[in-house]
Amino acid sequence: MSEAARDRILDACARVIARNGLRRFRMQDVAREAGVSIGLLPYHFGDRDGLLQAALDRVNAGAADRARAEAGDEGPRERLRALLLSEFGDDPGVREGSTAWNELRAAAVFEPATAAALARSTAAWQGEVERLVREADPEPCGGDPAASARAAALGLTALVEGLSGRWLTGQIGVAQARAAIDAALASTGLGPAEDRDGSA
Amino acid sequence: MSEAARDRILDACARVIARNGLRRFRMQDVAREAGVSIGLLPYHFGDRDGLLQAALDRVNAGAADRARAEAGDEGPRERLRALLLSEFGDDPGVREGSTAWNELRAAAVFEPATAAALARSTAAWQGEVERLVREADPEPCGGDPAASARAAALGLTALVEGLSGRWLTGQIGVAQARAAIDAALASTGLGPAEDRDGSA
CB 3.0-4.6 Å disulfide test: which of A25, A193, B13, B162 passes with A158? Predict the structure, then answer.
């Protein structure tokens, strides 16, 4: 399968989840939405949870792409900020991706196979955040730098997930979600570089 | 209806949601679980969303009770910490309450009436956190104290929600969730009083 076809299927998967929720999710709806034969899906993605995990990874990759487009040549602090902020936006694709994640998180409480897929995708995303935190702050004051980066990455990604739920249920807007991320970065000493000496 | 009967129904409601998820939620299962007549529920709670909101408020009240038992006579910082930490625990009732919240947050993305109930319960909880933040830090450095407390309350409660999803899906344990809350409190200058001068 071409990469374009694969991406088309995974984007269709996020769209189907965002439209109807996971409770009415059927692989054949994804095939129809993507305009491909239903037989392609098990062949390339295995079972339902294989497809769901690939769709989450694709949402993550999309957020990373947007972040790179936003902060490509800048330092790790700008890239970290862009990666976290890229989870919120007015683009329908951003909302679809966020809704798909949100649905899988909810379903995973009751479905061990979904929980395993979710845990793998979450670990990949949180690992990328942790890598940027270590680059942004290689010598945090006090403690083991690796443990400190791991803790910061958990706090930041869990905050994004919490804010995502608020945003998707209409309790806050994109700007408010982004401001909360900026506040968390600033308070953990991971804000944009110019904040470090208070000149911003 | 006696307060005890009301509490029994709302605890049964959280238990039913935690067992089967919201997708199979039926008011008659709540009545059966609580051992009351089905007719009582619409009479006292109105429709499904009225019952769900009352159940969320009851979960909140339970968390506030546990926090008071934990930090009753201590200062606002200890009470704030206890309130946030009380969302995570090994007691089955704590997990049931957290699961019910998690399910309602997920459903609210697709159901406007559930979103309205969720927003009211969330606002009440966040308002209590905001009140404690203002008591704990009446003069934050820089900016409007009210806006600052509101932003801190949003960040802290969204973090709790994100961590709750991680915990309920088995990605982190109670201790890790609590450590993340402590880290967020410390980095926003809202940690327990003895941290203020670095003596802890």
Answer: B162
The per-residue pLDDT for range A20-77, each reduced to its tens digit, is 888 889 999 999 999 999 999 999 999 998 999 899 999 989 888 888 888 877 889 9
Which pLDDT tens digit goes with each residue over B82-126? 999 999 999 998 999 999 999 999 999 999 989 999 999 999 999
Helices A174-187 and A76-85 meet at what angle, rounded to 10? 150
A-chain residues within 8 Å CB-CB of B160? 162
What is the C-alpha to C-alpha distance for residues A101 and A84, in angstroms, rounded to an integer? Answer: 14
Q: In whole angstroms, give the CA distance from residue B65 to residue B41.
A: 25
Q: How confident is the model at residue A71, as a pLDDT?
A: 85
Interface test with A, best of B25, B95, B122, B171 (most A CBs within 10 A): B171
Is residue B56 packed enough to be buried (19+ CB in 10 Å), middle (13-18) or exposed (0-12)? buried
Task: Report the residue from A102, A115, A180 with minimal CB separation from B154.
Answer: A180
Closest partner residue to B110 (CB to CB) among A21, A158, A171 is: A21
Binary contact (B105, A183; C-beta < 8 A):
no
Spatial contact of B65 and B87, defined as CB atoms under 8 Å apart: no
Give the DSSP per-residue string, A170-187.
Answer: TSS-HHHHHHHHHHHHHH
* CA B152 – CA B198 distance, rounded (Å): 21
Contacts of A110 in chain B (CB under 8 A): 21
Q: With 50 as the cut, is the pLDDT of residue B198 above it?
A: no
What token pair was written down for B110? Answer: 């697709």
Interface test with B, best of A22, A52, A110 (most B CBs within 10 A): A110
Global ipTM: 0.92
- Among the partner-chain residues B99, B165, B183, the one whose CB lies closest to the CB of A161 is B165
> H/E element holding B176?
helix B174-187
